[in-house]
Write a structure and sequence with these properties.
Length: 238
């Protein structure tokens, strides 16, 4: 019976994390020269197809989320075992970044007051943001967002020209980072001598940190692709 409950819980988690397929739009930039009429029609056709696939996947995601909500309502009215499974599912969704959360933490604003006077040069680059995220995670942050984008296991942060892409969305300074955790610990980790804040300030960035008793971090709104990873079942070879 215990094994069945465990398998059911894992199945529910897989529904949330596994069946939310993703399609990422990629910015198509032409090289030097004029794009031919044939190439333009081809790109238009590809974009239309991607939009149709994206809409279909979002509809599928919404359908599965509705089924999960229906199950949660049923489980909340059922036995203690069902309620325990629901609590485990809720915790899994929070960890995966699929739920809105709130709690004590810090809000960090990072701006480039010089507006990157040198063309093509980023005062705040992807390395700074990655260093900041690692510092917050090491200090026990339980949920983090940058400009409203929830940071999850599959989040990518990379430079794209004079912008930085986060979850495939393009951003420029200022960056507002919200992190939930112990406010004093999070702030202290950022302000240590030689730490990320000092390094960004030396490069010309303006950084403010505000400790708050109620920071809101909203859920990841994209879709998650899982094409290769699978759960290891009991008895599988190590």
């Amino acid at each position: 019976m215990k094994n069945i409950k465990y398998q059911l819980a894992m199945a529910l988690v897989c529904i949330v994390l596994g069946l939310m397929l993703s399609i990422q739009f990629r910015t198509v930039r032409g090289g030097v020269g004029t794009v031919s009429e044939f190439r333009a029609r081809e790109l238009t056709s590809q974009l239309k197809k991607l939009e149709e696939e994206r809409n279909a996947l979002i509809a599928l995601k919404n359908d599965y989320e509705k089924k999960i909500r229906d199950y949660e309502v049923t489980a909340s009215q059922g036995s203690n075992s069902a309620k325990i499974l629901k609590e485990e599912l809720d915790n899994a969704r929070i960890i995966a970044g699929l739920e809105d959360v709130e709690g004590p933490g810090v809000t960090i604003v990072i701006d480039d007051l010089n507006a990157s006077k040198q063309v093509g040069y980023l005062i705040i680059d992807q390395g700074d943001l990655l260093y900041l995220l690692n510092t917050l995670n090491a200090a026990g942050a339980e949920a983090i967002s940058i400009n409203g984008q929830r940071i999850i296991a599959t989040t990518e942060i990379h430079e794209a020209g004079e912008y930085i892409n986060i979850n495939t969305v393009k951003f420029a300074p200022p960056f507002t980072v919200r992190a939930i955790g112990d406010p004093a610990t999070l702030e202290g980790s950022l302000l240590i001598r030689g730490g990320i804040v000092e390094l960004m300030q030396e490069d010309g960035a303006y950084v403010t940190i505000t400790k708050e008793q109620n920071v809101k971090v909203f859920k990841y709104n994209g879709v998650i692709e899982r094409a290769y990873a699978r759960a290891i079942k009991e008895g599988d070879d190590q």
